[in-house]
Amino acid sequence: MNLSVQLAPANKKGLKLINPVMTASGTFGYGIEYEHLFDIQKLGAIVCKGTALEPWEGNPQPRIAETPDGMLNSIGLQNIGVEALIKEKTPVWAGWQVPVIVNIVGRTIDDYAGVAARLDKVPGVAGLEVNISCPHVKAGGAEFGVNPESAAKVTAAVRKATSLPVIMKLTPNTAEIVHIAQDVAAAGADALCLINTIRGMAINIKTRKPLLGNGYGGMSGPAIKPVALYMVYQVFKAVNIPIIGCGGITTADDAIEFFMAGATAIEVGTASFKNPRAPMDILEGISGYLEKEKIEDIRELIGAAHM
Ligand SMILES: Cc1cc2nc3c(=O)[nH]c(=O)nc-3n(C[C@H](O)[C@H](O)[C@H](O)COP(=O)(O)O)c2cc1C
């Protein structure tokens, strides 16, 4: 049975995974924290917490709230910065079998290009995943990812700064997801990841104030799965680069739906908070499904719902 997939077919280095199960940024630390819980080397890839040029402090507390079948977070991309990442984390990853993809963030286009350039050729880094759900400080604070032009500009700048495979992670907080996906692909992305969290809020009815310190946050978990699935389905028809599906994936059946919608691989996020073994359980469930259905190659499922 073949479970392996290629996420960067047009890239010289390529990004071959032994299976399509990845962890979602911000929900699995640097992988190192999970090493004692199960054999993380068996996963397809690990995506680490968003990393900027300098350390970021993140948003005021409280930063998380539960919602029906999901959660809200407003961590604010708190991170240790790229220099600490290179010093403390990448030497560990360099000894691993499982590829580690660094999720990168920035407040300006130069920030993104700077982190990308710094990580180029660092042993232990297999690729970059670019989070464009960050406020663009020079353009009044709207997310880079909400319009095709700024999304493509970030893509082109990162593409120029690195020879590593580049995955652009799209935000669902836009009406233009298909157009953005097309422009980002044209600007040199090797693959896409869909989706990041959906904007939302909760209000404390005692204090009459927003519950999160930041006022609003990003929603994730099972409740967002249908939205993410539909976006993957739509974008699959519009681009020719691999798509990584992400959003509410909790079971192997969820993952299989994403493959059928057009995903080449999937990321497990919020599910890991409830069950830290979730990525492994999902991987085992996918293998079991293929065996039961007598499917020899996972790639047969990609886009099956479009036939
Ligand atoms: C606590 C938390 C932190 C996150 N941090 C990041 C991040 O640093 N960079 C990023 O691109 N996405 C981040 N995300 C978004 C997830 O990677 C994922 O796209 C989203 O949660 C949807 O998947 P899920 O429903 O499986 O969690 C974060 C999500 C959560 C819940």
Query: Can you give the helix content as a percent range?
Result: 25-40%
SSE pattern: EEEEEEHEHEHEHEEEEEHEHEHH
The set of bound ligands, ions and cofactors reads:
flavin mononucleotide
Mean pLDDT, rounded to whole units?
96
Low-confidence stretches: none
Number of helices, counting only DSSP H or I runs of 4 residues or more: 8
First and last CA, distance: 22 Å
Main sheet?
8 strands, parallel
Radius of gyration: 18 Å
Total count of strands: 16
**What is the SS-derived class?**
alpha/beta
Instruction: Quote the beta fraction.
Output: 15-25%
Strand order of the largest sheet: 3-16-15-10-9-8-7-4
Task: Give structural notes.
The chain is of the alpha/beta class and 307 residues long. Helices cover 29% and strands 18% of the residues. It contains 8 helices and 16 strands. The strands form 4 sheets. An 8-stranded parallel β-sheet has the order 3-16-15-10-9-8-7-4. A 4-stranded antiparallel β-sheet has the order 5-6-14-11, with no helix packed on it. A two-stranded antiparallel sheet has the order 1-2. α2 (109-119) packs parallel to α3 (148-161) and α5 packs parallel to α6. The longest helix has 16 residues, at 278-293. The protein starts with a strand and ends in a 14-residue tail after the last helix. The mean pLDDT is 96. Bound molecules: flavin mononucleotide. Residues 24-27, 49-50, 73, 75, 77, 103, 131, 169, 196-197, 220-221, 224, 246-249, 269-271 line the site of flavin mononucleotide.
